[in-house]
């Protein structure tokens, strides 16, 4: 599945363990594909990127803060802007063999250790406190003219020093960050008022916002559909702190995994409640669902989402009964959540009825189960390990049309 990634000005180191290749697509002509090696630096992007998310079932990645990647690569980051560069071109032998070493490491923890070791080998701090101040200020929306005055620099000095460390001109970076702030506002609203948002985020008018949006994201605001990072392949996070000569870079290592025992796909379940309006408020508070729309007066239906999981809420009619009224459950819904531990704590603090504590199952899922206000059973889960069903005692049918896979490094299709 192709997905458009809106620019954020950051660089990423990525290693595809599923296959020795990455594929990117032209943002405006997605029939045009480029192939890259399986271990790359995705330089800081100031325009949109289109990726095939099916590749990301077995991925190790390091996410650099803006300006942080300059400490690990000798080439000027401006040369990597909007580019995908093979790691063996940058790190020679260690870049060439990194993927092989990661594949040989048997556990996620050891894979993280390998990547951390290699990053430390190439860490040569180029930290500039003034540029870090500029990065933070631009992310918060401070005008460039004010920044230049605060630093006492000529505009050309700021542009040269900023571009060298971040890889993007400060003016372009400011526009990218304004777009990011705009998108955060959009994601909080089920029906964005584009004119009001344009004024809120410092655009001259709505047409200015549309022009900037199209140039940076290659789509119009009305065509934008928020996508959560909570895809079916959930990332495990390991914090990374690198200290050299008093310089500290904190980033995150991500190991994207799938679990052959628990595939995820797109379904739209319809869940019936006695009071839909009350259910919307309850699900928002307890499970962090976000309302997309509602209809009827009084409210008789609604659509909500948590990450990439969408549900329809319906009003019970006639002789229909909820599980709470029946006295027993009739089904269970599974929702995949990236930050499962925080979600678990939020649910507990909201006072939900806990059916299963947070635990790892024999089939490789980290999960917990709860009951909602009308007695529906919910299971919140994240892939913890990639297990074939036969590894934990299940019998795999030969009539499913799915090829059996025994090696997690070959799990992508």
Structural notes for this entry:
This protein has 413 residues and is α+β, with helices and mostly antiparallel strands. It has three domains: 2-127 and 227-256, no CATH class; 129-223, Homeodomain-like (Arc Repressor Mutant, subunit A, Orthogonal Bundle), CATH 1.10.10.60; 270-385, Roll (2,3-Dihydroxybiphenyl 1,2-Dioxygenase, domain 1), CATH 3.10.180. Helices cover 31% and strands 25% of the residues. The chain is built from twelve helices and 18 strands. The protein has helices spanning 87-91, 93-104, 108-121, 129-140, 144-151, 155-166, 170-187, 194-200, 206-217, 276-287, 323-326, 340-349, and strands at 2-5, 12-16, 22-25, 33-36, 39-42, 49-52, 59-63, 84-86, 235-244, 247-256, 270-273, 290-295, 301-306, 309-315, 332-336, 353-360, 365-371, 377-383. A six-stranded antiparallel beta sheet has the order 8-5-2-7-10-9. A hairpin with a 4-residue loop joins strand 16 and strand 17. Helix 2 packs antiparallel against helix 3 (108-121) and helix 4 crosses helix 7 (170-187). The radius of gyration is 24 Å and the shape is globular.
